[in-house]
Amino acid sequence: MKKMMDREGCMAFSNTFQDLYGMEQLPGLASQHLMAQGYGYGGEGDWKVSAMTAILKAMGEGGNGASGFMEDYTYHLVEGQEYSLGAHMLEVCPSLAADKPRIETHHLGIGMNEKDPARLVFEGKAGPAIVVSLIDMGGRLRLIVQDIECVKPILPMPNLPVARVMWRAMPDLTTGVECWITAGGAHHTVLSYDVSAEMMRDWARMMDIEFVHISKDTTPEKLEEELLVRDLIWKLK
What we know:
Helix content is 29%, strand content 30%.
């Protein structure tokens, strides 16, 4: 995979668990190793998040910071202890790991895997971070950035056979989810510890892309007004 991408000058890739083209298992471990080397990845044919993963990695410290493909896997909804748990089937970049990852093989009940695929399993680092989503608005692109605070998982998860990162969404889980949906945020994201919302704002300005920031001070009402004004501005352009 690396030789093919280097030959073609590609820095990002995607795949699908349905079409393995002769492979006996989905290349989860290979995808994780490639992301650790700075290549972008997006699951299930998601080329936009694949490109954004490569871009955020290039923007990170040393040209390959702690950034990786991510999705909201599930939620902890105990009142006063609301958290998001981010994960994916196999492909979470080890640059996000708090400790040395383990290599494990487990059955994958989705797709056309003939053999149990290997993957790196670990918990993500604690600390401030962002999640990023690039979406197509039909006449323009919109970059959505949400501030989060990653934490050590509050419960052991011995039966979860994938890498995972747990975080508090800003301003809180319920409000943050409402704002994310209102802005049109996608299922897949890029999580980064190294790239800030300010850096993404600058990048969006250079690329002439609409920028939406969900922070600790964001409210659904204020965001709706902001999006309405932005929509009018972009139509006038």
